[in-house]
Amino acid sequence: MKLLIINGPNLNMLGIREKNLYGARDYKALCEYLVNEGNRLGVEVELYQSNHEGCIVDRIQEAYQNIDGIVINPGAYTHTSVAILDALKAVSIPTCEVHLTDVNAREEFRKISYIRLACDKTYAGFGFDGYRMAMEYLVETYGK
Ligand code: DQA
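Above: inputs. Below: predicted complex with DQA.
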């Protein structure tokens, strides 16, 4: 099984951006965590981060017939991007949405997620663990 883990805008700034919300660990630490979890679960993991909506759309399209599950933290595009939603619907690869913070307990605009409409599950407010939970769900549900 091959999982693609997509992180959207500003997630490369982890460890620098709003540490009170997103924690002190940086994006490199997140990547190491994701690779370790992939090894533990016995699945291949591909990591992708971009600050650009169209690049994320391109990466999702490239995943068609190559990737068995997607874990995506779309960052701020969560709340705005019909294009990313449509790309996920187009490839119809099992997908989970992850947010480090509990988006439902923050500003009103963060409660809206276009991406969720193409996702099996959403994990929000669990920090790095949310990615693990999403990976475990995809492995358990869609096999190795
Ligand atoms: C985020 C939540 C979004 O609202 C925000 O724009 C982000 C990060 C999270 O992981 O909690 O960039 O997706």
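The pocket of DQA is lined by residues 10, 73, 75-76, 78, 99-101, 103, 110 (CB under 6 Å).
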